[in-house]
Amino acid sequence: MISPDITVFMAVYNGERFLREALNSILQQTFQNFELLIVNDGSTDHSENIIHQYTDPRIRLINNQKNQGLVITRNIGLQEAKGKYIAILDSDDIALPQRLEIQYNFMENHPDIAICGSKAIQFNHLNEEVLIDVPTDYLAERLIFGNVFVNSSIILKRAAALEVGGYQNYSLGEDYDLALRISEFYPIANLNQILVKYRVHQHNITLTENKALSQEELKIIKALYLRWSIDVSEREIAIHHAILYSRVKEYSTEEFLSLLKKIKATNQSSKKLPISDFNLIIHLKWFEILRHQKKKSAIFYFFNSTLFDKKAFTTKQFRKLFKQMIGFNF
Known about the structure:
The chain contains 13 helices and 9 strands. With 330 residues, the chain is of the alpha/beta class. Strands 1, 2, 3, 4, 5, 6, 7, 8 and 9 form a 9-stranded mixed sheet that branches. Helix 8 crosses helix 9 and helix 10 runs antiparallel to helix 11 (275-293).
C-alpha cells in the first residue's frame, strides 16, 4: 500500500497475551484503506512471532533492537507513518468495527480538527464493563485541568503532531502533553460514540508507575506555565496537579483561588483560549473545588470571587452550595 489514508499505530512490548485481539479488531474494520504500523519495542516474549503469523499486506512491522521506551517508540511511529491521519490503539485494547470509518469521515468533514477521540468501554478479565465518558465541549479549556481523551480512541493529523515537535520525554504522560500542545494551535474534538474497548489488567499502570506519572505530570504542568509565560512556584504547580485529580483538601481555598485567578487573568490578556469559554471552565472548576472541600462558607467564596461567571451560573449550583452552608446531609 503506497498511500493509506490512515496509519493505525500500535506500540508493542511483551504484549503476547492480548495482541491477537487488538490486531484482529483492526483488520476487521469496515474502513479498508489503512496501514497497521506496529513498532515492536524489544519484546522478549512471543509478540513478534504472533505478528509474523499474519499475512495481511497492510501490516508493517518495525523492530527496535532493544527496548527504547514508549516515547521513542511513539516518535518512530510518527516518523514512519504513511497516512494523513494516525489512529492510536494500544496492544491490549480493542477497536470496535466502525471506529476508523466513523473517525475518518469526521476528520474529512471537519478539516480544522487535529485530534478526535471518543467514548470507550473499560473492561476486565471478568468482562465487567464500565463506560468511560468523555466531554464533548470546551475541550481545549478543559484540557488545561486534565486529559479529556482516551488515548486508544484518538485519531490525529500526523502533520499537526510533527509540527509541534512530536512526543516529548514525559514517560507515561507523553500523550497528554502532545494533546495539550496541539490544542494550542488547532481545534480538538471528542465524538459522543463508543469506538474502543479499554482493557484493565494487572500490567496497567502500577502504584509505582502512578507516582512516576505524577512526577511527569508536574513537569508537563510546569512546561504549560512556561508556554503561557505565567510565573508560578513549585507549590502552585502542585496545586494545579491537585486539581487534575480533585485532591482539593490538600490545599487551602485561598490557594486555589489565587492560582485560578492568575490563570484567568493571563488568558484575559493573552487570549490564548476564547475568553468566555475559558471563564466558564474556570467558574466550573471553582465550583467543583468548593463543593469537594465541603466548607459551609463555600457559598460566600463562590459569589464574592472574580472567578464567578454569571453566564455559567445555574440555580442548581446555588442550591447545592446553600445546602452545604446550612449543613444539609446529602
